[in-house]
Structure formats: structure tokens, C-alpha cells
């Protein structure tokens, strides 16, 4: 007889929820702010969100009728909407959910090469492995700008062209 208790593993739903909480902005520190953030993101039904925070249906209704909570929820919902967090969060979830299918398509020799190439480019981009464009100064315009001010006159700017300019010292 085995006296060892089975190791409890987190379900995929719990793991996704933990990841979502980790992705919430750090400015939403306390439980009510995080609850408002989750409600505003609308990734799960409100009943599930309240249940995760150990709110009964009655306590959830009471909280939603509290004017200060209503204001906090409205403020956080506006912040999330304006910052695009809702879209980015849902896009991240969608990308994670579809990743196995993308891997299967990218490695399937019967998938068209254009689709495979797009998937390879996409995966390099989202993983941060895409080469960065380097600014080596060739596109910056270059050249020399020289300001000369003569007594009693406004400053004049002389911009060199691509050809060298020789400046001689007078005697």
C-alpha cells in the first residue's frame, strides 16, 4: 500500500490564470485593484473571477454596488482600454493557444512554403529573435553644421555639402 499522497499538479486553467495575473501591470497592487483589472479584461465570466477571489454571489453584488468600488472599476477599465492592454492580453492568449497549431503547420512538409515562411518570420518576431535594424549613421544625413556670428549680425549657419571645404587662416 502506497502511503504517499499524489502530487497535485495545477490544471491548465490555473496555470493560465497565474500567467494572466503575472502579466497584469504592477500598478494594480491590492486585491480590489487586481479584481477590477480582471473584471475589466473580461477574459473569464465575472462569476469565475469573483469565485477566484473567494466572493460569494451575494458578496460580489454588494461589492459591485459599493460606489468606491464602482469608481475604481470604471477608472481601471478606462486605463486598460486606453493603454490597449485588453487587446495585447487577448492577443497574447490567442497566440499561446494557437502556438501548437502554428508549430505543426510550420513543420508540416505539405503546408505551402509561403505559409511556412510566414510562420517562421512570425515566430522569430514574437520570440525576439528577429534581427534589429542597425543605425550605422549612413541614413542620418551626416555633414557638418557650423554657426558663425559676426559682431552686430544675426548668427548664420553654414552647412557643408558632400564635398570638402578648405578653411584658410588669414594673415
Poorly predicted runs are 1-8
String of helices and strands: HHHHHHHEE
| Oligomeric assembly | single chain
Proportion of helical residues: 40-55%
Report the portion of residues in β strands.
under 5%
Task: Please tell me the overall pLDDT.
Answer: 75
**Count of DSSP-assigned helices:** 7
Give a brief outline of the structure.
This protein is mainly α and about 170 residues long.
Care to describe what's here?
Among the domains are: 12-83, no CATH class; 90-128. The longest helix has 23 residues, at 85-107. It has helices at residues 12-23, 31-41, 46-52, 57-65, 67-83, 85-107, 113-126; strands at residues 145-148, 156-159. A hairpin with a 7-residue loop joins β1 (145-148) and β2. It has 7 helices and 2 strands; from the N terminus they run αααααααββ. It has a two-stranded antiparallel sheet. With 171 residues, it is mainly α. Helices cover 54% and strands 5% of the residues.
Name the features:
171 residues; 7 helices; disordered N terminus; mainly alpha; two-stranded antiparallel ribbon; flat
Write the layout of secondary structure elements.
Layout: H1 12-23, H2 31-41, H3 46-52, H4 57-65, H5 67-83, H6 85-107, H7 113-126, E1 145-148, E2 156-159
Antiparallel strand pairs: 1-2
